[in-house]
Amino acid sequence: MKKWIFLLSLMGILLSCTAEDVKFNNTAFQTLKNNVFWRAQSYQAYLTQSGNVIIEGSLGFEKVTLQTSSSAEQTFTLGADDISKAYFEDSSSDNAVSFYTGTNIGTGQIVITEFNSESQTISGTFKFTAVNKNEADTENPKISFTEGVFYKVPVIAEEMF
User: Fold this and answer.
1) Distance between CA atoms of 102 and 131, rounded to whole angstroms?
2) What's the number of CA atoms in the CB half-sphere (13 Å) around residue 61?
3) Residue 149: exposed, middle, or buried by beta-carbon count in 10 A (0-12, 13-18, 19+)?
4) CA–CA gap between residue 100 and residue 127 (Å, rounded)
5) Mean pLDDT, rounded, of the chain
6) Do 70 and 53 touch, CB atoms closer than 8 A?
7) Residue-wise over 34-67: b if at least 16 C-beta within 10 A, else e?
8) Is the pTM of this model over 0.85?
9) Domain spans, the chain
10) Please, what is the Cα angle at 82 between 55 and 96, to 5 degrees?
11) How far apart are CA 108 and CA 146, in angstroms?
12) DSSP three-state, residue 132
């Protein structure tokens, strides 16, 4: 009798479980900055008249800016040209710092995994190593961002004035 009760209880538990995946639809912009978790408090993307996409994430005085040549779902290589590039700025003190990638400067990639034209959102991943604009700052010659994700960031079309 105890075996039957146990078996029925086990079957009840197994049948009550479903195979539904839990899905979160929270927008996000986060990364590891020099191996330390960094999550933007505010984020936004812009689609320029020339077709470039600019994705920005800010945390206080810190801002990460990603730029690609289009909204196409593809991988954009950083350090190859001045069209697809990345910036990091920290304007929190008198010693404000700026890091960037460009033609033969820095390395990395931005991968756009989804551009939803109906909901006007963009998603993807990124990683990059950027060079300090101030070459005299030998203590901080570069900065590294890894495991970066931007998910369903709202896109605004920029208008030319």
Assistant:
1) 9
2) 9
3) middle
4) 13
5) 87
6) yes
7) eeeebebeebebebeeeebbbbbbbbeebbbebb
8) no
9) 29-157
10) 65
11) 9
12) strand
